[in-house]
## 1
Amino acid sequence: MEIVPNNSLLNLTGETAIVTGGARGIGFGIALRLAEAGANVVIADLKKEQAEQAAEKIKTNGYRAEGCATDVSKEDDVIALVSFAVSKFGGVDILVNNAGIFPSQLVHQMTLADFDRVLSVNLKGAFLCTKYASEQMIGQGRGGKIINVTSIDALHPSTMGLAHYDASKHGLWGFTKNVALELAAHRIWVNAVAPGGIQTPGVAEMQGKMKVPDGVDMTKMMEAFLGKIPMHRLGEPDEIGKAVLFLASEMSSYMTGSQIVVDGGALLS
């Protein structure tokens, strides 16, 4: 086996990556790290303006990026996203299924539409992107990498009000393992990153809108959550970006069907 030099292990020059939900938070942290490693990055996000603004931020650093408006729960949008990546950069080599929503709702406050929406974005969206991006990768004949952003909630619930989210993330972890089996014959490696609590705009919005039972102090609840993290802090988006870069690169050459937990040790408690 040829030993790849250290200075080439993280080099993604010439490869094209799609990052869903890439306009901000964890997704942007991922997109920036992949771009810095040399990849052409397509930032897919629900709002065209936000996707394009994020791409421009990456371009100002001298890297290559384009924004594409995409609702990952819609098949036509996903087909158009893959076509966009091919038209702009000539192919697809890396897919990061990061797009996800996590509205806090207790089960008795949750409607069927609420439950369906979370699963449509978080789980069906990953299925659609995987289906069409992997078809492109297979046609290219040079393998590829698919990285699914799950959550520590794929392994253990973090807080109440996320039953629909937890169902979607457990499903995404199972999906990751099965698709890893299916695509290995095509040299497409499929892995996951499970973030713990990460300080993002989405998390801040969720905390502001969270409905908790009478008598529950939200501030004390957050203090208790942080108290269970051995590192005693929330993570940064870049800390997930670095883990995704590892899985997208030659550093993870003998990994498929695995999940990397990046949670400051939260699951230890």
## 2
Amino acid sequence: MNARRILLLEEPSWGGVHTMTRTLADALSAQDWQVTALPWQQTQWPTLVSAAKQHDVIVATHNFGPTYCGAALKAITGKPLVSWVHGPLMDVLHEASTSAVKKLWLRLLYKQVSQFVCVSRTTQDSLLSFITLGKQQRCTVVPNGIAPLPEGQIIHVHAGHGGEGMPPLLLGYVGRLSTEKRPHLLLDTLRHLPDEAQLGIVGEGPMHRKMIHDGMDLMYQGRVHFLGKHPSGASLYTPWQMTLLTSRYEGCPMTALESLACGVPCVSLPIPAMRELYDLDAPYLLARGDAPVSLAEAVMTTLSLPEQQVRDDIARIVARHHIDGFVGNWQEVLRAC
């Protein structure tokens, strides 16, 4: 079997990266790999060094902080370093207004990485437009996998009646309320939908207050409900007929994959990662443009299609992201280190 001892340098947080870190650790452990996950910021440096010496491969679960720590541990121990790249690097650096000095430092740092694992071709293309791989470096695409979701905490959906006696159209959003996710577009999308459309927003973040202010009219009408932060689980998606994704960029978004795995279509703006995910099987889940009205039109188009067609299309996407393929690909990467 050739299982190896893996040290995961993790960055505990709520969201897709944390979900996939747990998924990888659990999946490898189930295959009898020895996996130690340590929060790199909260662990004493001598403990990190000792752990690195006792393991065969260091896996940085994100290409920023954990990879910085991993590069230092590699310099001390000589152990191979794998950097897991989630988002499209060029977009992330642009969003953060990263300086030329920081970019130069990153290029030098990334020379210490033995193997990059990107969650999508979109992410890989962005990384390789930023760096040139050295002779001893490799870069592989391993799409995120979907592990069985726990039921999770029940969400109380405040679904009143729809307009003119129509049943409500329940839409959901699951994610951080931050600028790169562009959650403010959700409110305008809702304004382009029929009166019976209601939106439940699961998540918190720096744009929370502004969204409450800007969506006051919709809240008064009972069409928008801020539901706070909830643990990951099927309950985040099953109350809705459809979920919405408005991000400026993504790598391989777990919100979309988890929604589909629950049988709930996820309609998105046409960013590259979502075109990669949907173009082959369900292009109607992509808006035709970046405007909220386009997202609203995609919602109505999806609703007009036969339910069985939508279920079948979603099932093919979910099958391509089965957990078995995910962990199998990761095992190949780690054995080669």
